[in-house]
Amino acid sequence: MSTANPSTAQPGALAGIRVVDLSRVLGGPYCGQILGDHGADVLKIEPPQGDDTRAWGPPFEDVQGRQVASYYMGLNRNKRGTQLDLSTEEGRAILWTLLQGADVLIENFKTGTMERWGLDYDTLAERFPGLVYCRVSGFGADGPLGGLAGYDAAVQAMTGIMSVNGETGGDSLRVGLPIVDMVTGLNAALGVLLALQERHTSGRGQFVEASLFDSGLSLLHPHAANWFASGKEPRRTGNAHPNIYPYDAFPTGTDAVFLAVGNDRQFRLLCQHLGAADLADDALYATAGARSVNRAALREQLIALLASQDGPALAEALMAIGVPAAPVLSVSAALKHPHTAHRQMVVQVGDAYTGVASPIKLSRTPASYRLAPPVHPADPPAP
């Protein structure tokens, strides 16, 4: 575990960038957290009732005498906090003051809300021409679904993700984490950085939008590419990859392992290690294409060879010889893994916060962890 010391934190790559984060729940707050991890000064502005995710539990954490859901804690570090009622003229007047000198605004209100409040991009850009205005939305503002609210699981269903997730012959399943929301947050952060980079040339900000629908469609590789090429409807393949094999989970004599064999050399090394070198010369399995076509028979062959193996030991041995493999770990085991500690991927800020660290590694301006999530948002400043 990496323990943060805010007093010794280095300025990040975004030091000097000021962000006003009006967003709630996941995609927008995750974007703000990414920017904050890398040095931006992020002010999270919540409505008087607070971000919805403060109540999304259990589990709850007892922080400074208040019960706060772990869901909220995982998305809002490196932010200062305050609260405003933007439905009132007073609240909006304070926001106008806070936007002076701000570089980025993040919001994910239902489309039309900011316009109704006179806080749309065109209006703000007249007074703050350098402002990068980032909107996280469900479907964008127009089109057949324009303006509708979007939620991760519903968008997984609508964009085809659920149709390819699940066991062969089984029902469609939601991916077991909010992958669309999180990728939308990543896309939003990327869009903000692109706009800030372009601002060096033009001196002007711009409108940035990342929608859940677009982000969900962007995740369809290789299924979309396969459909464009073949016209065949992608199907569920369980843990197996639709294009290459063996790229699947396999039982062993102990715990299951995942084999991620991507080329002929890796397959030959696997067969040699299992004492079945002749399998790599069999015309049914000698090439990537042949292995994919004949995957059912190959799976049976491998299950027989793996039946006497210790799963974790096998995965370690295969990795050592260049065959991608892994034990199937629980969340707790993954977070306690020695390599997780080596990569400093669990961070602690004081006694109040423990979370997953930034995966973005910069040599000179690394991420820093200066602030635990704002448990008690401060009263708003006077307008």
TrEMBL record:
The lineage of its organism: Bacteria, Pseudomonadati, Pseudomonadota, Betaproteobacteria, Burkholderiales. It holds the Pfam family CoA_transf_3. It comes from the Bacteria. Gene3D superfamilies: Crotonobetainyl-coa:carnitine coa-transferase, domain 1, formyl-coa transferase, domain 3. Keywords: Transferase. This is Carnitine dehydratase. InterPro entries: CoA-transferase_III_domain, CoA-Trfase_fam_III, CoA-Trfase_III_dom3_sf, CoA-Trfase_III_dom_1_sf. Coiled coil: none annotated. GO terms for molecular function: CoA-transferase activity.
